Amino acid sequence: DAMVIQNPRYQVTQFGKPVTLSCSQTLxxxxxxxxxxxxxxxxxxxxxxxxxxxxxxxDTPDNFQSRRPNTSxxxxxxxxxxxxxxxMYLCATSRGDxxxxxxxxFGPGTRLLVL
Amino acid sequence: GxxxxxxxxxxxxxxEAFLTINCTYTATGYPSLFWYVQYPxxxxxxxxxxxxxxxxxSNKGFEATYRKETTSFxxxxxxxxxxxxxxxxxxxxxxxxxxxxxxxxxxLNVKP
Lengths: 115, 112
Known about the structure:
The structure holds 2 protein chains of 2 kinds. Helices cover 0% and strands 50% of the residues of chain A. By secondary structure, chain A is mostly beta strands.
C-alpha cells in the first residue's frame, strides 16, 4: 500500500542535542509537510516542500530546519531542542496538483521527548 | 483570513447513540472541506471530504454535507461504537492549496 512512513515512532533526545526526524513516502507526491502537534491541540504547520522549493511558515523558529534530498524523503532537523519542543511531529504529503483539491495524507507521527 | 471553528469537547456518548460534531468555517471563495480522525498516539487519518457546495462526504458510517449557505460541515454518525473514540479535526483547504486550516479538534469518548 502506498503510504507515508515516519521513523522512529518515538525519539528521546537531550536538551540542546541536535535531532533529526525522518519521513518517507511511496505516494510519489510532490508536496511534503511537517507539522508540530502539542497535546490536545491542532497540528501546526512548520514548513513544506513543493518539489524542491522550500516554504517556511512565518512563525516557525529558526531552530527548525528541513531537508528534502529527493522526492521520497524529507527530514526535520531540530538544531538545539528545548523542553518546549517536546511534541508529536507529523509528516504529510499531497499531490501538488494546483488545479484540484489538495488532500493531505499523514504519517503516524514521531513523538519527541526532550530530557 | 480562512479559519475553522469546531465545537469543544470532550463529547461523551453511549454506544449506539447519534453523533453530531459541529464545524463552521470562514473562507474566501470555494474551499474544500475535510474531516480527519486521530486515534491515541497516531497520526491523522482522512475520514471524509467534500469539494463543493451540497457535496456529501461519507465513510465508515460517518457523513458530512458541505453547506455553503450556513458555512458548515457538521460530522454525523447514526450509531457510534466504542472504537470510534478518537479526536476529530475539521479542516479546510482554500485559495492557498498547500495550506490546511484545522479546527481545534473534538475528543469523542464512547462508553459501552
